[in-house]
Backbone:
């Protein structure tokens, strides 16, 4: 139960006097959000084709493309914020931190973003939350805020992140003639789409995940499993990347005979991007986020 107003008033006034820079920064963010929202309403999004649903899966499978899914977590890392559960503040004490921000991770995320802003990729389909961007994330944010009982400040922070996402991705939308919907894995579960068709005909699967039971999803496949830490996975990035490269080289895996399935948050985007930069015929890579966990939870709910 929250404290009475008079007991919260004086500590609040003290914090504003003791830490004025914090509230100056918060005020600047509010002004920035207002400017972004106004700009979004008066600026028409560039015309682009966005694959979603079954059309997305068909396009990926037919052209043997990898895909990277940009979300709020990558935007947080870009701005030096930790990725966590419930509370989205920078302070890791406010909620459970899943991936802490670091200078190295931020630089790699920025390099990835700059590449797609300036180059048309023939091997990787860049995915964004397209419908949410078009509606300025308002419907999604409203539903999320109600489901997770967000406070006013938590809702404000989410609005800041999604407004920043819109600003960051505008250049990519303009540059890339074809994009994907980053919500397809969840949409596949909701619409009963067959996500497994992506690896149905593959002989070899490299799987990077925090849970070994996920390997059971790839029946009659030659599965190379690499365990990803459940929290702060990027601390193990160099080792995971080297192990992946060793598996690819030792077993002569390539785009035609194998795929890589990775569920590792921001690390997944960086690894997929760098594999395609360093290997001429890299295995097709699928960034699936929490697809398998959600699938299992829904199965038990049924």
Residues:
């Amino acid at each position: 139960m929250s404290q009475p107003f008079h007991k919260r008033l004086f500590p609040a006034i003290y914090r504003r006097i003791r830490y004025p820079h914090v509230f100056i920064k918060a005020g600047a963010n509010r002004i920035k959000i207002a400017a972004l929202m106004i700009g979004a309403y008066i600026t028409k999004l560039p015309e682009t084709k966005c694959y979603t649903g079954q059309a997305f899966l068909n396009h990926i499978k037919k052209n043997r493309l990898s895909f990277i899914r940009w979300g709020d977590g990558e935007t947080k890392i870009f701005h030096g914020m930790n990725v966590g559960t419930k509370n989205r503040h920078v302070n890791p004490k406010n909620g459970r931190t899943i991936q802490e921000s670091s200078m190295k991770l931020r630089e790699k995320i920025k390099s990835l973003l700059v590449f797609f802003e300036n180059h048309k990729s023939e091997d990787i389909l860049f995915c964004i939350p397209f419908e949410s961007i078009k509606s300025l994330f308002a419907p999604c944010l409203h539903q999320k805020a109600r489901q997770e009982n967000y406070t006013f400040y938590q809702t404000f922070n989410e609005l800041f992140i999604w407004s920043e996402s819109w600003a960051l991705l505008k250049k990519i939308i303009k540059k890339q003639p074809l994009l994907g919907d980053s919500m397809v894995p969840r949409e596949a579960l909701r619409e009963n789409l067959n996500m497994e068709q992506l690896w149905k005909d593959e002989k070899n699967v490299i799987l990077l995940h925090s849970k070994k039971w996920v390997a059971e999803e790839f029946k009659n496949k030659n599965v190379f499993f690499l365990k990803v830490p459940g929290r702060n996975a990027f601390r193990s990035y160099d080792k995971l990347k080297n192990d992946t490269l060793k598996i690819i080289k030792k077993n002569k895996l390539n785009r035609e005979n194998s795929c890589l399935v990775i569920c590792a948050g921001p690390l997944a985007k960086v690894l997929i991007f760098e594999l395609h930069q360093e290997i001429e015929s890299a295995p097709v890579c699928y960034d699936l986020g929490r697809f398998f966990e959600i699938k299992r939870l829904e199965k038990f709910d049924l």
About this structure: The beta strands are 49-51, 66-69, 83-84, 97-99, 124-128, 178-181, 204-209, 222-227, 258-262, 284-287. The chain is about 50% helix and 15% strand. Residues 1-43 form one domain. The CA atoms of residues 13 and 19 lie 10 Å apart.
